[in-house]
Amino acid sequence: MNDCLFCKIIAGEIPSKKIYEDESCFAFYDIDPQAPVHFLVIPKAHITGANEITAENCAVVGHIYAVIAQLTKKLDCKDDYRVVTNCGDLAGQTVKHLHFHVLAKRSLAWPPG
Ligand code: AMP
Ligand code: ZN
Q1: pTM for the whole thing?
Q2: What's the pLDDT score for residue 1?
Q3: Amino acid 76: pLDDT
Q4: Where would I find the beta strands (DSSP E) of 1-113?
Q5: How many angstroms separate the alpha carbon of residue 53 from the centre of ligand 2?
Q6: Which of 9, 62, 76, 90 has the greatest number of CB atoms lying within 10 Å of its CB?
Q7: Measured from the CA of 16, which atom of ligand 1 is nearest?
Q8: Could you tell me the distance, in angstroms and rounded to a whole number, from the CA of residue 82 to the centre of ligand 2?
Q9: What pLDDT is attached to residue 113?
Q10: 78, 36 in Cβ contact below 8 A?
């Protein structure tokens, strides 16, 4: 966990463009945005990925979706946005700390690549 990039961002050891923080989650802009609005919301607890969500730690996931609903309103996303969680190497997960991408303010194709 000590080598985790997102744990270091939460701790302030690596700078980020923070949008929001509370006792259980942290939101910041993605360093390589794929849409006019692209931010990440992460639990403060180190959870490696979606495959590590359990009955014991899952409350933060619902909380994060509630935070996303608030932040997208605040950022004037007009209730149009996509939430993405990549899990595992084949899905393109590069940072092994659970995170929710929020993409907005452009038309998004489906299916994703
Ligand atoms: P994923 O590929 O789904 O694991 O997403 C990881 C995301 O983290 C990518 O979209 C990266 O652009 C983003 N990222 C990597 N390093 C940083 C950083 N220092 N600050 C903000 N976002 C980052
Ligand atoms: Zn971490």
Answers
A1: 0.98
A2: 53
A3: 98
A4: 18-21, 25-29, 37-43, 81-84, 100-104
A5: 14
A6: 9
A7: 20
A8: 23
A9: 86
A10: no
Displacement of CA 50 from its chain's centroid (Å): 11
Residue 8: DSSP 8-state = H
Q: How far apart are CA 101 and CA 39, in angstroms?
A: 6
Nearest atom in ligand 1 to the alpha carbon of residue 84 is 3
Distance, CA of 103 to CA of 89 (rounded, Å): 21
Least confident of 1-10, 20-29, 37-46, 74-83: 1-10
What is the C-alpha separation between 48 and 1, in angstroms, rounded?
Answer: 9
Pocket of ligand 1 from Cβ distances under 6 Å? 5, 14, 16, 28, 30-32, 86, 92-95
Residue carrying structure tokens 């909380």: 63
Phi-psi region of 52 (alpha: psi -120 to 50; beta: other; left: phi over 0): alpha
Asked whether 24 and 74 are in contact (CB, 8 A), the reply is no
